[in-house]
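Limitations

Structures in this collection are predictions, not experimental determinations, and the ligand pose is part of the prediction. Treat each record accordingly. The example that follows, with glutathione as the small molecule, is included so readers can see exactly what is and is not provided: the inputs are given verbatim, and the output is the predicted complex.
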Amino acid sequence: MIKVHCLAYSRAIRLLWLLEDLGQPYDLIPYDRTDQFRAPDALRDVHPLGKSPVIEDGDLKLAESATCLRYITDKFGDETHRPDPHTREFIRHEELLDYVESTFAGACMAVLLPAMQGGDPPDEARRSLQTHLDYVASHLPGTGLLFGARAYMADIQFSYLLANLNALGFLDAAPRVRTYWEDLQKQPGYLAATKAAGPMAPEH
Ligand SMILES: N[C@@H](CCC(=O)N[C@@H](CS)C(=O)NCC(=O)O)C(=O)O
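Predicted complex:
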């Protein structure tokens, strides 16, 4: 059974969403945040970077949520969380799945970190975020999720950052992205994962 080292309010909840969708049991190892909202030292005993998620499957230990999502779909032969490999949508989905942590997360953290400490994000960071939110919106159809009504891995990957942006009001100027986030929260896997591990974002 896959072991998921899951910090509170973290990207690890993405993996629980996928595992819940697949009906696969998992061993959830929960960690509380410190008073500074950091990972506890115990996570450094699990992985040198001391971050979450980390999964263990037998003697394999993996970090990076996008890699973990791909590992889980491949392990269970799942074909329902990404487009058919013979289609153009397949590589677009791969691009978006990688974009979330490689590029979008940096733009999000530049506003989230100051805001979480009660400060005002720099104008430059706000402008950059808006560029990224417009870019995300450009990939969304008129209604629903990125590739239809069901969540693919890229949708799951977006969820954590959108939860945190929304909690601090940063989706107010991006109405299409906000309805996307509202639709993501109706997905059964999201509901099951947050029931198991708590919300993706703290209340502010
Ligand atoms: N790119 C990594 C990011 C991992 C990461 O930064 N995790 C956060 C939680 S969402 C963490 O452990 N933060 C605690 C800390 O840095 O103290 C991924 O996608 O898994």
